């Protein structure tokens, strides 16, 4: 019995020792695996910093306007008797859009026309009698001017009657209808807006110090978004205001848009206006830049033997030009910068370049 106790104790110690040894061996293997996988080779795409000829530009926010556009209304008030248009309809110049109830105007016009005819006949007869010295000059003048007054009244009533009809002043596309049949339309109240979408312009303001760089006939670019994609448009300066706004010391410029596409009056666009002669500047793809509040940087690829190593490099950036951005400091022409795969990178990681596929 006494001999069995040491044997049991030895067995227990041997068991614990084996367990501890296995645990230590497993932890050592895991540590080696973690060390080997701490900085695996990362596949990235890359591009070289290159010189490009860029024209320095100033940007402004412009508003689209129609060359012809108006809120259509009538000078006469009345109840709408007929509506002859629909929202969004394309109309031609002179087309009738709505009519007001003319009330007694048609009857008054007929009465005035009859009186004008009678006055005209009386004036003609008076002239014939005056020719044979049958009446005095005063009576002839009374008959002649009486006819003129009667005809003037006819023209006045015709104009009043015409003012009860709303016609399109030019060809274009109507907006949303703002009135309904039977509604009382006040004088001057807009019934619908008419725009000519084929001839669109953009108005924007430039600071007074840039006024000398803006000239009539100069081309500029507009940028607007359609969904998630940006689209470029071309415009040409057609007029420059002759007065600087005292509130913001800016000069208003108007440009004609070529091929406006989806642009509509009232929309805002970004205007890019050339301000200096073209310059040779160093550029990289904009997607290569990691933007941070403490400073922008890019991953530059450096050779170490047969391997590429990524180094985080601070950069000072300039203007954005399309898909590229100007680099003012931090890089040299020919430097390889990472353009995709940065999210997996750490400073000093070994990388593999693969530009054949798009990396995310």
UniProtKB/TrEMBL annotation:
<dbReference type="InterPro" id="IPR058627">
    <property type="entry name" value="MdtA-like_C"/>
</dbReference>
<dbReference type="GO" id="GO:0015562">
    <property type="term" value="F:efflux transmembrane transporter activity"/>
</dbReference>
<dbReference type="Pfam" id="PF25917">
    <property type="entry name" value="BSH_RND"/>
</dbReference>
<feature type="domain" description="Multidrug resistance protein MdtA-like barrel-sandwich hybrid">
    <location>
        <begin position="75"/>
        <end position="191"/>
    </location>
</feature>
<feature type="domain" description="Multidrug resistance protein MdtA-like C-terminal permuted SH3">
    <location>
        <begin position="282"/>
        <end position="341"/>
    </location>
</feature>
<protein>
    <submittedName>
        <fullName>Efflux RND transporter periplasmic adaptor subunit</fullName>
    </submittedName>
</protein>
<keyword id="KW-0813">Transport</keyword>
<dbReference type="GO" id="GO:1990281">
    <property type="term" value="C:efflux pump complex"/>
</dbReference>
<dbReference type="InterPro" id="IPR058625">
    <property type="entry name" value="MdtA-like_BSH"/>
</dbReference>
<feature type="domain" description="CusB-like beta-barrel">
    <location>
        <begin position="202"/>
        <end position="274"/>
    </location>
</feature>
<dbReference type="InterPro" id="IPR058792">
    <property type="entry name" value="Beta-barrel_RND_2"/>
</dbReference>
<dbReference type="Pfam" id="PF25967">
    <property type="entry name" value="RND-MFP_C"/>
</dbReference>
<dbReference type="InterPro" id="IPR006143">
    <property type="entry name" value="RND_pump_MFP"/>
</dbReference>
<dbReference type="Pfam" id="PF25954">
    <property type="entry name" value="Beta-barrel_RND_2"/>
</dbReference>
<comment type="similarity">
    <text>Belongs to the membrane fusion protein (MFP) (TC 8.A.1) family.</text>
</comment>
């Amino acid at each position: 019995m006494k001999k069995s106790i040491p044997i049991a104790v030895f067995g227990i110690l041997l068991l614990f020792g084996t367990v501890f040894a296995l645990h230590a061996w497993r932890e050592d293997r895991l540590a080696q695996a973690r060390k080997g996988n701490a900085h695996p080779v990362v596949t990235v795409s890359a591009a070289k910093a290159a010189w490009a000829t860029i024209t320095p530009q100033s940007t402004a926010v412009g508003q689209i306007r129609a060359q012809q556009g108006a809120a259509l209304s009538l000078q006469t008030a009345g109840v709408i008797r007929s509506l002859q248009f629909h929202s969004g309809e394309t109309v031609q110049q002179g087309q009738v859009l709505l009519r007001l109830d003319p009330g007694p105007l048609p009857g008054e016009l007929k009465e005035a026309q009859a009186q004008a005819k009678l006055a005209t006949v009386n004036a003609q007869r008076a002239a014939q009698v005056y020719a044979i010295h049958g009446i005095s000059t005063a009576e002839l003048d009374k008959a002649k001017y009486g006819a003129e007054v009667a005809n003037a009244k006819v023209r006045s009533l015709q104009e009043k009657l015409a003012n009860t009809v709303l016609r399109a002043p030019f060809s274009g596309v109507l907006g949303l209808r703002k009135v309904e049949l039977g509604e009382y339309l006040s004088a001057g109240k807009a019934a619908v807006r008419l725009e000519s979408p084929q001839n669109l312009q953009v108005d924007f303001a430039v600071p007074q110090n840039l006024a000398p760089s803006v000239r009539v006939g100069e081309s500029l670019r507009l940028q607007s978004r359609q969904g998630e994609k940006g689209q470029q448009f071309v415009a040409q300066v057609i007029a420059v205001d002759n007065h600087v706004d005292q509130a913001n010391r800016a000069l208003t410029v108007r440009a004609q848009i070529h091929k406006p596409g989806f642009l509509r009056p009232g929309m805002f666009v970004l205007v890019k206006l050339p301000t200096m002669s073209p310059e040779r500047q160093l550029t990289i793809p904009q997607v290569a830049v990691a933007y941070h509040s403490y400073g922008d940087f890019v991953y530059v690829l450096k050779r170490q033997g047969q391997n590429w190593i990524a180094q985080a490099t601070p950069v000072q950036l300039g203007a954005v030009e399309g898909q590229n951005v100007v680099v003012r400091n931090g890089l040299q022409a020919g430097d390889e910068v990472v353009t995709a795969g940065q999210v997996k990178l750490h400073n000093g990681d070994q990388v593999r370049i693969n530009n054949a596929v798009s990396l995310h």
